[in-house]
Amino acid sequence: MKTVAVLGATGSIGASALDVIARHPDRFRVGALSAHRNVEALAALCRRFAPDLAVIADASLESALRDRLRDARVATRVASGAAALIEAASGPHCDTVIAAIVGAAGLESTLAAARAGKRLLLANKEAVVMAGPLLRAALDAGGGALLPIDSEHNAVFQCLPAEHSGLDAAGVRRILLTASGGPFRGRTRAELGAVTPAMACAHPNWRMGRKISVDSATLMNKGLEVIEAHFLFGAPAERIDVVVHPQSIVHSMVEYEDGSVLAQLGNPDMRTALAHALAWPERVAAGVAPLDLLRIARLDFEAPDRATFACLDLAYGALAAAGNAPIVLNASNEEAVAAFLDARLPFLAIPHVIEKTLENTPSAGVDSLAGVIDSDLTARRVAQRMIASAKD
Ligand code: NAD
Ligand code: MG
Fold it and tell me: Residue 222, SS3?
């Protein structure tokens, strides 16, 4: 029996995770749940899953959550704020953590879970981009396993040998990350001038939170995933390639020295990756429809349009620059995407803001959590200036 903490339980990944968990009450129970502000949804999940601990990140809502659970027949302790989130990730309420908070807000709880030696099921890719080396050190110190939830990295994990001491030892030539191309695949720059948040969030294959949906539309999601693959699999940038695959059936591939290319296929449904990581090394049902290759009939592949979707190369550039550059990339992207979703910034200005923020933030080495947080805040301030001047 595994006891699971779902951090970001009210989100898209949280819902998929809890769906898989609910299918296997003999294997998994929920030890802790967290949400940012959605008291109603978190209270409903507490009634259904009866966790030991429920954390509402926004401390001003703690009493509202407590009120909603007063008459519930569950012995859930209610807590709030950053320290409670860390307790949920690293305390005695779980042996497995699903890190599914979106953005930099998930960094400290992800690191805490790793340091505590929990089995870390990682969706929060921004934490890896910001603090890959710190996460690796925390995993080594804690001794727990990391299982990637991001569908591409979960696919790569499945296509690599179970035990290996690096890609060279495993005979790996390169990692091929697939990308759907997002809702604007094939569009020209001129056609992207007036796209709205609703258009950007209407992903053809996946239903996801708004931030990652915009990232998919700009191809920054794939850029973040290149950096994520670098840190998770120890692959240098030149051995991570991106291929656009509009059907989202091949979730990624590993090419070996002998010419073999191993791929993981499946319907675009995050429950497959979640079930894989929850049960690993075993396999359990995920509720996902069987893959019907005859209905799909064809799988297409094409090169990404790197000129129109400039975020992909900005991410490769930040990975090559190293130091604080991935932190600056992530922070300016989060600020630019929030401004776009708020109708304060046009779609095409997102890569512009990121590029200008990278240019205008002094480069620095970063070797501590305080350093990561400091670089993140500095970059956000610069990005805010760039957003303000992009509007003029
Ligand atoms: P979402 O917006 O649907 O959910 C985000 C969750 O994080 C919510 O529960 C929310 O309450 C919580 N949260 C948001 N801000 C917070 C804050 N400041 N403090 C504490 N909690 C906060 O997002 P999602 O689509 O589920 O994505 C979650 C993470 O998983 C992201 O890092 C995303 O890149 C990654 N991911 C998502 C998918 C997908 O299919 N949705 C696929 C791969 C990776
Ligand atoms: Mg992905």
Answer: helix
Ligand 1 binding pocket includes 84 (Cβ within 6 Å)? no
Q: Kindly tell me the burial class for residue 362, based on how many C-beta atoms sit within 10 Å of its own C-beta (0-12, 13-18, 19 or more).
A: exposed
In short, whether 220's Cβ falls inside 6 Å of ligand 1 is no
- Considering only CA atoms, which of 354, 345, 7 is closest in space to residue 195? 345
Residue minimizing CA distance to atom 39 of ligand 1: 208
* ∠ CA 201-215-227, rounded to 5°: 155
Strand 261-265 with 240-244, pairing: unpaired
* 142-196 pLDDT per residue, tens: 999 999 999 999 999 999 999 999 999 999 999 999 999 999 999 999 999 999 9
| CA–centroid distance, residue 53 to ligand 1 (Å) | 19
Tell me what pLDDT residue 392 has. 62
E strand or H helix that includes residue 17 = helix 12-23
Beta-bridge mates of residue 244: 179, 302
User: What separation in angstroms does the CA of 326 have from each of 2, 107, 108, 133, 248?
Assistant: 34, 14, 17, 12, 26
**Rounded distance from Cα 103 to ligand 2 centre (Å):** 14
Kind of pairing between the strands at 250-256 and 240-244: unpaired
Q: Is the peptide bond preceding residue 281 cis, with omega within 30 degrees of 0?
A: yes
Tokens of 132: 């890959």
In terms of pTM, does the model score above 0.85?
Answer: yes
The radius of gyration of the chain's CA atoms, rounded to the nearest angstrom, is: 20
Token pair of 377 as six digits: 């805040």
Give, as one character, the DSSP assignment of residue 237: G
Task: Check pocket membership of 127 for ligand 1, CB cut-off 6 A.
Answer: no
> Token pair for residue 102?
């979106």
Q: How many C-beta atoms surround the C-beta of residue 295 within 10 A?
A: 6
> Are residues 177 and 237 in contact, defined by beta-carbon separation less than 8 angstroms?
no
Taking the alpha carbons at both ends of the chain, their separation in whole angstroms is 57
Ordered strands of the 250-256 beta sheet: 240-244, 172-179, 250-256, 261-265
Encoding tokens for residue 79?
């807590």
Tell me how many degrees the CA angle 129-347-337 measures, rounded to the nearest 5. 35
